[in-house]
Amino acid sequence: MEQTLFVRDVIAGLKLDILAGAQGILRPVTNPNLSKPGLELAGLFDFYESDRIQILGSKEGTFFHWLNENDQLIRTRMLFEKEPPAFVFSKNVVVPDLFLQFGDAFGIPVLKSAYKTSSLYSELFTFLQAALAERQTIHGVLLDINGVGVVISGESGVGKSEVALELVRRGYMLVADDIVEVYQKEKGVVIGSSPDLLKKYLEIRGIGIVNVVNLFGVRAYRENKRISMFVNLVKWDAFTDFDRLGLKEDARFVFDTPITSVSIPITEARNTATLVEAAAYDFKAKQLGYHSAKQFDADLNAKILENAKKREE
């Protein structure tokens, strides 16, 4: 799913001030990378990356003021003629009048940030990477359970939202119900969030739509979360062979990132919320280096060897 991003979205996301070129806030932003036009200000335009937002920090600002008036005019015009999405000046840079004039003339936004150069570059790059990343949708409920991002999946009507409601009541955080929008920040890191319309809401059959913030307070909800595992709820079937030791490790791929996946059989007698909670805590323990199933297997094998030696004696 392709994302559409405009300069106005960048302005809102980074809280930037518009100094000139306000008529160009609907210019599209298609490249998440950024450029600092130092070489261009020096007169070398062979490698000008005009499809990127241009960042001007203290170095670029200082160098610009060292140029004579004719070079300033020519090179500023050349920067604008290639029509980049926008120019963003960092906190301590005095914005030259030429940029303001050409910004209005070409309809290219000239923006000012409250961040210093390195922070501006980092914040803007992170924002663009997330905003322009390819997205998928997953059917399930995403929760933050003690720092572990868990997607509860399963057939419709299996009780995913009811389990989520109980976990939120216990103090954990809802991220998304029913539809989880995901993007890959980098290989190995998949972030999930809720569509705007569904944020903070849970659908509980028999009750309806509930707002978890209104019910449990602001600590019951977070905007997004890295997905660490999938917990698939399946109805108990006596003929299905479920893993009883936990030595088998399955994964589900989202984009090209493998994410731990476990299946939990459910019946009326099992407390599903507690099982999901236990799965999340077990995952966290494994990440910290303690694997209960492997430890049990090692202890069992040691005991077998011990008994074998005793029989030989």
Description:
There is one protein chain. This protein has 313 residues and is an alpha/beta fold. The chain folds into two domains: 7-132, 3-Layer(aba) Sandwich (Udp-n-acetylmuramoylalanyl-d-glutamate--2,6- Diaminopimelate Ligase, Chain: A, domain 1), CATH 3.40.1390; 135-296, P-loop containing nucleotide triphosphate hydrolases (Rossmann fold), CATH 3.40.50. Helix content is 36%, strand content 27%. The chain has helices at residues 7-14, 38-41, 58-66, 69-81, 97-106, 117-132, 160-169, 212-216, 272-287, 292-312; strands at residues 17-20, 34-35, 53-56, 87-89, 110-112, 135-139, 141-145, 148-154, 173-176, 179-186, 189-193, 201-204, 208-211, 224-226, 229-235, 250-254, 257-266. It has a six-stranded mixed sheet. Strands 1-5-4-3-2 form a five-stranded mixed sheet. A four-stranded antiparallel sheet has the order 6-10-11-14, with no helix packed on it. The radius of gyration is 27 Å and the shape is elongated. The termini are far apart. The mean pLDDT is 90.
Named CATH architecture of the largest domain: 3-Layer(aba) Sandwich
CATH superfamily of the largest domain: P-loop containing nucleotide triphosphate hydrolases
User: Terminal Cα separation, in Å?
Assistant: 68 Å
Strand order of the largest sheet: 9-7-8-15-17-16
Overall pLDDT score:
90
Number of helices: 10
How many domain units?
2
